[in-house]
Amino acid sequence: MMIDRLEGNSELKTSVRLMLGGRRMTHSVLLVGEEGLGTGFAVRCVAADYLYPNGGAPAEALLRGECCRAVAKAGKRDSGQIETGIVREAISVTGMGSGGRYLVGQVTAMRSEIFNTSLSAEGRAVLLYHVERMNEESANALLKVMEEPPEGVLFLLTADSLAGVLPTIRSRCISFAVAPVSPADCARYCTAQGVDSKDAALYSELFDGHIGTVLDAARDEARRAQVDKALALAKAAAAQDSYAAAVLLSAYEKDKVGAAALLADFRAVAAAGLRGSPRAPVQGDAARKALAAADAAIQRLGAQVNPKITLSVLAMKFRTF
C-alpha cells in the first residue's frame, strides 16, 4: 500500500489499512500536522490507496501531485475552474488568495465538478490542503458538498493545527495526527531518498524529524542558502555579535516575506540548540533567548511593524544573549 511509504506514524497507517481493507472508509478525513511533517504526502498516499488499491502508474502520479486542480481568481466569484491533470480521479485544492487563503470560486468549481461528472470505477478523491486557511464563505461552500457528498467521493483535508480548523468543518471529519519521526529515522529516510548523508543528518537535527522540511532544504538551493544564513545568525547569537547579526539582517530590510522565512529557520536552529542538539551553533540559555527574540520578531513582522525597525531591534538583542 502507498500509505506504507509514510515514515513512522504506525497508528495512522494501521487505521487507514483497516478502513480501506474493510471498505469502511469515512467520506471525510482530516490529517493534522505541523508544516514539513508530510501531511500533504500522507493524504496523497491515502487517496492513491483508495482510488488504486493495486498501485501502478496512476498511483505513482498521484503521489507526485499530478492531479486536477481547482483554481480561481481573487475578486472574481465566477472564475473557478478545474485544470485537468494526469490523474483525473483526484482534484487538489490549495488556497490561492492573499496569504494562501481559499477562494470561494475554487470550492464551487470543485463542487460542480464532482456533482456533474460521471464517476470512474475507482471513485473520486478531493484533496484540500491547509483548510485552516478557509474563511467562513469558502467553508460554507465546502459544507454543502460534505454534508451530502456524491457516492464514491472521498474528501481528504490537511491542517497545521486542529484548533485552526473551523468547527463546522472539523465536526464532519475523522481526524488523525501526523507525528514527526526521530532525527535519526528522518536522516535515514532522507538519505534513502537521495539526500547526502551529512546534509540529511544536519537538517534532521535542526528540523526535529520534519521530513518534508528536510527534503525541501536539501533539494532546493535557495532554501539551503537560507538555512546557511540561519546557522550564521545562530553563530552570531552564540558569540553575542550584534554587528554580524545586523549586517546579515540588513539584506532583508525591504523583504518582509524573506525576513520572516529566515527568522523561521533561525527559530528552528535555536530550538534545536535548546533541545541540546550538538549541530546547533547556539546552546542553552543563549538558545532560549534567541528563540524568544525570533518569536517576538516574527510576531512584529506579522503585525505589519516596519521590517527595518524589527530587524534592527533583533540585532541589538544579540548583545544580551
UniProtKB/TrEMBL annotation:
This is DNA polymerase III subunit delta. Pfam families: DNA_pol3_delta2. Signal peptide: none annotated. InterPro entries: DNA_Rep/Repair_Clamp_Loader, P-loop_NTPase. It comes from the Bacteria. It comes from Faecalibacterium hominis (ex Afrizal et al. 2022).
